[in-house]
Model the fold of this input.
Amino acid sequence: MLIKGVEGKIIKDSRGDQTIEVSIKTDAGKFSASAPNGKSKGKYEAKPYIKSITKDIEALEKISDYFSEEYFEKFDDLMRLEDTVKGHIGANTLFAFESAVLKAISKEQKKEIWELINPNQRKFPRFVGNSIGGGLHSETAKKPDFQEFLLIPDTGSPHENFRVNLESKEKEKQILKAKDQKFSEKKNDENAWVTSLNEKEVLEILSELGIPFGIDAAASSFYKRKKYHYKNPQLDRTPEEQIMYMKNLLKNFSMLYVEDPFDEEDFESFAKLLKEFPNTLIVGDDLTVTNYKRLEKAIEMKSINALIVKPNQNGSLIEVSRVVELAKSKGIKTVFSHRSGETKEDIITDLAFGFGADFLKCGITGKEREVKIRRLIEIEKGLKKKN
Done:
């Protein structure tokens, strides 16, 4: 597949914020892909754009002719693309560009995108669905301090897991109506229920549903001047008190999954929690930001046993591949994840499936979330037909 031209344009994400769509003209046709936006960002994430979206679009136009002699036919060929664009475009633009290239290769070769990564893959990731929200994703004054309350069913089938999540989210609505006088059926950035309850009260609701669940505390978002500043109820916790609080929550609620329970610099606290709760998934996101060196440090310090993979945090799909390979070699579970500002792009599902991810975190409802869920169900149906 030869690239005959590259262009970018500004589109809107699910929050109405600007993001980028990259289109390529090839001898196999025209292909486009877009990148999402995160609101809760780790300090060590790669820059989404070198200076701005506009500057990245200009850079794409300047380097458009560089690829006319380059032939792309497999996933690893992206390395040559990255060598060409390095320093010219940011992570969001690179992710969208590489995604468009994978779409073109798959079309030309009459393969699914995931087959370019691993044609023998048969393992389905479990859905991690944000069902009730707080933190930076919810704009109400009174809300849980933790950012996400997650449902993680395990039926063995993407289709069935989706059904369970939909039913459970509906049950939550009825419970919230009874327990939260301020509940008005509003949804936040990720289409999760908005509530005025605190994290303990929400965890009690999740405990009633009878399926595995967890949290994304996004603790860096309320950590300042060496303390965790809670607002519901209002109190400050030292790092030591935060460890005790997280331990108590894990003792009182049988959580499968705990993401970013501490600040993004605090590898030690992650390690202490993991040591005491080795059977709980202690997940790094802001801690590790899909970055090879940060993951190496987390492995060395035994800070995590699960890792969030957000391709646009890094930009380079070759680096994403290296991060996943390292995680797997050390027995660390991988969780491919959407962002709070999403588009209708569904390639993350093919990437998650192709790389053999253990989980796919992509919300539960909302058109930008459901397109990713339905893509995994489509892959499931396709494989059933083959078998």
The chain has 13 helices and 15 strands. The mean pLDDT is 95. The chain has two domains: 3-110, 126-386. The CA atoms of residues 350 and 379 lie 8 Å apart.
